[in-house]
Amino acid sequence: MLEQIKQWDRDLFIFLNNLGIEQYDSFWIFVTNPRHWIPLYLIFFALFFVAFHWKKGLYAMISLLITVFATWGFTNLVKSFFVRARPNNNPSLKELIRILQEPVNYSFFSGHSSTSFAATTFLVLVLAHKFKWIYLAYLWPIIFVLSRIYVGVHYPSDVIVGMIVGITMAFLFFQLYKKFEDRIVR
């Protein structure tokens, strides 16, 4: 059964990766770089201060950063345990896929996926009662993680598991955020 799932994952990756159009390569390479999203991160932080007084805004911002860094650390721990090669490093796939990036670290599960979904979910949990449109923020991680398949560095399962882990971590850290909110923000 596990071999069948791996085969489906591989086949789906090849199919999705090959949907790429050369004219859009530069867009996806740009999108997949976390540094290019810094203005969005700053907007996320600013929303905390628009929604709350400075002390609670600062508390929310620091809590978001803790959520993201804890998720990133957990992701790297899991990657070092599973040591799954990225599709771009799989010799049997080289001739079948489009490779636009060539990282050499491990694939399972996607750090882009886990951290972006953790950040967005935490943001939504904190701000949903203030801004009904905040759910639109999910457009960012969706585009961000699709880029990982497009550039040839993650299987769909890497992205899906990363998404689940990120959302789960956000809910866990949101519970801690709520638990300590009254003690820290007076």
What count of helical segments does DSSP give? 7
The 3D shape can be described as: elongated
Beta-strand segment tally: 0
N-to-C order of helices and strands: HHHHHHH
- Main beta sheet strand tally, sense and closure: none
* Number of spatially distinct domains: 1
Give unreliable regions as ranges.
Answer: none
Radius of gyration over all CA atoms, rounded? 18 Å
Determine the structural class based on helices, strands and strand pairing: mainly alpha
User: What kind of assembly state do the chains in view correspond to?
Assistant: single chain
Distance between the termini: 54 Å
User: What's the helical proportion of residues?
Assistant: 55-70%
What's the overall average pLDDT, rounded? 92
Strand content: under 5%
InterPro entries: PAP2/HPO, PAP2/HPO_sf
Organism: Christiangramia antarctica
Pfam family, one: PAP2
Keywords: Membrane, Transmembrane, Transmembrane helix
What features would you describe in this structure?
The structure is a single chain. It is built from seven helices and no strands. It has 186 residues and is mainly alpha-helical. It has one domain (41-184). α2 packs across α6. The radius of gyration is 18 Å and the shape is elongated. It starts with a helix and ends with a helix. 33% of the residues are buried. The mean pLDDT is 92.
Question: Features of this protein?
Answer:
186 residues; mainly alpha; 7 helices; 0% strand
